[in-house]
UniProtKB/TrEMBL annotation:
Keyword Transmembrane (UniProt): yes
Keyword Transmembrane attached: yes
Transmembrane segments: 27-51, 63-96, 108-129, 136-153, 173-192, 223-242, 302-321
Primary location: membrane
Lineage, highest ranks first: Bacteria, Pseudomonadati, Pseudomonadota, Gammaproteobacteria, Enterobacterales
Name of the gene encoding the protein in the UniProt record: rbsC
Protein name: ABC transporter permease
Source organism: Pantoea phytobeneficialis
Keywords associated with the record: Cell membrane, Membrane, Plasmid, Transmembrane, Transmembrane helix
Pfam families the UniProt entry points to: BPD_transp_2
Annotated InterPro entries: ABC_transp_permease
């Protein structure tokens, strides 16, 4: 095969539109809604508190941070990678922001996001030019980010309420973290569906070799994706500070796996090339609802970790088996 041709299978993979048939789309989207409704019915039986406006608002606010992380993870998984550094970058961003707020809120936000983007860029370069497997590259960056977080501050950094008062507004359930999450998800949806760059990401994840032969700059696209993922992870850290009024260097341990589980629940193909960002966000809500129900049931935190681990194994295992059948 020469550089100007590729086989029929590769052509079909490259030309496949970023999505499924309309019928399958509707079915899978409604299936996620039905799953959540079924969970809500069971949860309301376990605890009458579940369907109260306060608790539902709490679920959304807790899901907002994981949701932004899941946006970052979705982009990387879409091109066939993994990013194990998202939670560590969140922690680093949170302590940078919290430490800088007394001087300048704007400077703190900019510094946190730039740090996240820089670490994402490092991951992208390691994966593309260094040919380091994504899991190893991002695991290394995770160590760097977590270490830098402790260098910035060895303990939690409290932020004076007055400094964040302007960011703690809330319109019904729409707090700033929730609003930021929704905007990020909608922008990614638009980018992936309307821009050539977004469609190229599906092509790369579906068949990287075919995408390269078609003239798509695979390395450049992947570097941009990892950089965006780093910036989004940092944004999640900023929103965590807005929500909790503190930056914590050890916060978010294990959230990188939560973000993977959430998007897989939402139907994202674990090996790239297939997924819908809005359905992935529905996966976030379902995953966060599971955590909320366990809290309402007063389940011991250690048992909660076991349940979450079982959920991750189940959804990832199901995805692998589905991929093997295709």
């Amino acid at each position: 095969m020469n550089s100007t041709t590729f086989n029929k299978k590769e052509t079909l993979t490259l030309e496949r539109l970023p999505g499924e048939s309309i019928l399958r789309k509707l079915f899978s989207a409604w299936a996620l809604v039905f799953i959540w409704v079924a969970m809500a019915i069971v949860a309301s039986i376990i605890s009458p508190v579940f369907l109260t406006s306060i608790n539902l608002s709490n679920i959304l606010n807790q899901a907002s941070i994981l949701g932004i992380l899941a946006c970052a993870q979705f982009l990387v998984v879409l091109v066939g990678g993994f990013d194990l550094s998202v939670a560590a970058i969140l922690a680093l961003s949170s302590v940078i922001f919290a430490s800088t707020v007394p001087v300048s809120t704007g400077l703190g936000m900019m510094s946190g996001c730039l740090a996240g983007a820089a670490l994402g860029l490092l991951s992208g370069i390691a994966v593309t030019w260094g040919r380091v497997p994504p899991m190893i590259a991002t695991l290394s960056v995770m160590g760097i980010a977590r270490g830098l977080a402790f260098v910035v501050s060895e303990k939690s950094v409290a932020v004076p309420m007055a400094k964040l008062a302007a960011y703690k507004f809330s319109f019904s359930v729409l707090s700033l973290p929730v609003l930021t999450w929704l905007i990020a998800a909608c922008l990614l949806y638009w980018m992936l569906r309307s821009l050539r760059f977004g469609r190229n990401l599906y092509a790369i994840g579906g068949n990287e070799r075919a995408a390269s032969l078609a003239g798509i700059g695979v390395r450049t696209h992947k570097i941009i994706v990892y950089t965006l993922a780093g910036a989004l992870s940092a944004l999640a850290g900023l929103m965590l500070v807005v929500r909790t009024s503190s930056g914590v260097p050890h916060v978010g341990q294990g959230w990188e796996l939560d973000s993977i589980a959430a998007i897989v629940i939402g139907g994202t193909r674990l090996f790239g090339g297939e997924g819908n960002i809005l359905k992935a966000m529905m996966g976030v809500i379902i995953y966060q609802t599971i955590a909320n129900v366990m809290n309402l049931a007063s389940l011991d935190p250690f048992y909660q970790d076991i349940v979450k681990a079982l959920v991750i194994i189940t959804v990832v295992g199901a995805t692998v088996m589905r991929a093997e059948k295709v």
